[in-house]
Every structure is written in structure tokens, then in C-alpha cells.
């Protein structure tokens, strides 16, 4: 698969908004929507963990073209901590329990809305990457912190 595209983010936003799915873009895909100058191979979503949201999420994923099996649907509905989907039009990670963020409700309160996209606050994106402590995350942290500082100085509203 190629790089995740803005058009695909719009498709997620539009389908999930219509179905009432509560989620946040997180990780590098979230940072990119905020203006971070980079690319990513997949979308990272932080969905709210509840059976109702999980059912709406499964319906939305199927509408987007993902081939969700019955076992995958059950994992999504119960909010398994991490689910990687490579059986659709693009790669997608569902992260119900991101490192460094205790509760969805807290991240939801701090979220940033950009053109209808619900995005984790840059502080949460950074906290999650710090807590995950993977080599690829450590390598990008200085750039993400610099972007966050720029973003805070220059955001409107």
C-alpha cells in the first residue's frame, strides 16, 4: 500500500460522522491533519470503547470497504486494545488503549477539530509516542515537539 491520503481521511470523517462513531485521529496521521509536515503509511484511530460505538465502527469500516470478519467485529465491539486492519482500501490501526492516555473521555475533552476531523491534541499525540517508547517514535519526538510549539503559537481560535 502507498501512503495514507487526505481523501481517505475525509472518507473516514464523513462515514463515521453520519454513523455517530466517536473516535479521534491519533499518532502521525493525527499530527498530519494538524499540519505536521510528514507522510504515513496508515491511519491511526483512537475509538471510544463501548459496544454501541464498536457496532457503529464496524458498520462504518464495512461501508469504507474493509472486509471485517465476525471475529474482528467482536474484537472491535469489545474494544480490544489494538487492532491492525490490512484488509481494506488502506491500512488502519484501531487503538482503543493508546500508551500514555488514560481515558478516551480526557482525550476527547482536549481534542482539536480541524475541518470536521476530531484529532487528539498534540500533547496527547506526543505523550502517546513517549509512552510507547518505540525507536521510530523516539526518532520523531523532537520534530513533533517543535511542531507542537509552532502549532500552539500560531493556531487560531
How would you describe this structure to a colleague?
- This protein has a single domain (6-154), classed as Beta Polymerase, domain 2 (2-Layer Sandwich).
- The N and C termini lie far apart (36 Å).
- Helix 1 crosses helix 3.
- 53% of the residues lie in helices and 15% in strands.
- A hairpin with a 5-residue loop joins strand 3 (82-85) and strand 4.
- It contains seven helices and six strands; from the N terminus they run H-E-H-E-H-H-E-E-H-E-E-H-H.
- The chain has helices at 6-19, 27-34, 51-64, 70-78, 104-110, 122-132, 135-154, and strands at residues 23-25, 42-47, 82-85, 91-95, 112-114, 117-119.
- It is an alpha+beta fold and 157 residues long.
- It has a four-stranded mixed beta sheet, with helices on both faces. A two-stranded antiparallel sheet has the order 5-6.
Helix-strand layout with pairing:
Elements lengths: L5 H14 L3 E3 L1 H8 L7 E6 L3 H14 L5 H9 L3 E4 L5 E5 L8 H7 L1 E3 L2 E3 L2 H11 L2 H20 L3
Helix pairs in contact: 1-3, 2-6, 3-4, 6-7
Strand arrangement within the widest β-sheet reads 1-2-4-3
| Major beta sheet summary | 4 strands, mixed
Low-confidence stretches: none
Q: Total helix count? A: 7
Q: What is the gyration radius calculated from CA atoms?
A: 15 Å
Order of helices and strands: HEHEHHEEHEEHH
* Helix fraction by DSSP (H/I, runs of at least 4): 40-55%
CATH fold annotation: Beta Polymerase, domain 2
| Form type | globular
Mean pLDDT: 95
Offer a quick outline of the entry.
Helices cover 53% and strands 15% of the residues. It has 157 residues and is an alpha+beta fold. β3 (82-85) and β4 form a beta hairpin.
